Amino acid sequence: MILIIVAGPPSSGKTSVIRQIIRHFISEKKITYLKIDVVQAFEDEELKKEFGIPTRKVYSGDLCPDHTGIMVLEDAITWAENEEADILIFESAGLCLRCTPYTTQSLGICVISSISGVNAPLKMAPMVALADIAVVTKTDLISQAEKEVFRECIEKVTNTTEIIETNALEGTGLRYLMRRINEAPTLAKGDKVLLRGSPPLGVCTICVGKKEIGWQHHFGVVRPLDGADNIYRGD
Fold it and tell me: Are residues 221 and 170 in the same domain?
């Protein structure tokens, strides 16, 4: 079975890319789909109705969606194997730019909208840097010069992630993506699957419900406004 993990910010075109993948492979492979979202999602219902594939969804609610995804992914792999699937597509909520859902023995796809601003790839560095492929969507809405600047920003983050530019609604430019999926590593029963990147160092006191503002009221990785550096680092 091939495990495809699709990440990216909201409204970047993740589900449109997934639709193109399903449309391309549906006649030759059995596909399953899992959606992680926070409070509401309809993609699973739409894809099941459109393509007749087995789908599931999980709401993270009060939990970080990437955390939820990590918790349920092993169960999802078992579910897809029981469905005798050839492909499991796992779509993350894409709300946390610090975590990345990609694992070993999967094809990691980061979907980014080209109209989200040329600096967008720099703002979601781990999600881009640990992906196998960055699919840049809505490229029909920007100029060639803007495309080149956007590509350069991705290359500032990583020189190993492959870049594909597309209008995902039409599926233009996705032929190479389909070929990469065909060549993707397969996941055998019993294989140990690990996260590619390091997750955050710990659960902070805000995550567990402490409402007071100000670093004085919290513990863990804390720092005042006038710290020595402008980025938080763990000890």
Answer: no
User: Could you tell me if 173 and 105 lie in one domain?
Assistant: yes
For the chain, what is the domain count?
Answer: 2
Domain annotation covers residue 196: no
Q: What is the pTM (predicted TM-score) of this model?
A: 0.88
168: its two tokens: 């995902």
Residue 172: count of CB within 10 angstroms of its CB: 13
**Is residue 214 in a domain?**
yes
Whose CA is closest to 154, among 184, 113, 125? 125
Domain range spanning residue 23? 2-182
How crowded is residue 234: how many other Cβ atoms within 10 Å of its Cβ?
8
Burial of 34 (0-12, 13-18, 19+ CB in 10 A): buried
* 134 lies in the same domain as 57: yes
Kindly give the confidence (pLDDT) of every residue in the chain, 235 residues in length, as a single tens digit, with 9 standing for 90 and above. 999 999 998 889 999 999 999 999 999 999 999 999 888 889 999 999 999 999 999 988 877 787 788 889 999 999 999 999 999 999 987 666 667 788 989 999 999 999 998 888 888 878 898 999 999 999 999 999 999 999 999 999 988 999 999 998 888 989 999 999 999 989 887 788 888 877 665 667 777 788 887 878 877 666 666 665 666 555 4
Q: In the block, which residue shows the tokens 């029909």?
A: 140
- Domain presence at residue 189: no
Q: Distance of CA 79 to CAs 45, 88, 91, 128, 216, Å?
A: 17, 10, 15, 28, 45
| Within-domain flag for 101 | yes
Can you tell me the distance from the alpha carbon of 8 to that of 46, in angstroms, rounded to the nearest whole number?
20
